[in-house]
Specification:
Layout (H helix, E strand, L loop, with lengths): L7 H7 L3 E4 L11 E5 L2 E4 L1 H20 L5 E3 L3 H13 L3 E3 L11 H13 L1
């Protein structure tokens, strides 16, 4: 299956270069920040393009081996497109509030969900 094509222009037009507010950033992301404007970090798209390609290759390889992919998009404007894309691929998705620990502490999170179901 061919990977989707994207360019610096298409990423700019989609707003992919807009990051978080400058006071809400993770210092580990410093090397990917191009600069800031109006208290918003601007992401370095020259680094984004090859890394996005790597991610697409990894997802393609997982899917080709019958693996599962989790689509995540919890912002209001992303919720429906994320759900539709995941359903088309018969994959999992999360388009509501992300619970901290969902991936890293599943035992505790699943226990909390089970207790809520009992109520």
């Amino acid at each position: 299956m061919a990977l989707p094509e994207f360019s610096m222009r298409s990423l700019l037009e989609s707003g992919a270069h807009f990051g978080h507010q400058t006071h809400r950033w993770n210092p580990k992301m410093d090397r990917y920040i191009f600069g800031s404007r109006s208290n918003i970090h601007i992401i370095d798209l020259s680094q984004t393009i090859p890394l996005l390609h790597q991610a697409l290759v990894a997802v393609r390889d997982v899917a080709a081996k019958g693996g599962r992919v989790l689509f995540v998009g919890t912002k209001r404007q992303a919720a429906d497109p994320v759900a539709e894309a995941a359903k088309r691929c018969a994959q999992y998705y999360m388009n509501n509030r992300w619970l901290g620990g969902t991936l890293t502490n599943w035992r505790t999170v699943s226990g909390s969900i089970a207790r809520l179901r009992e109520l």
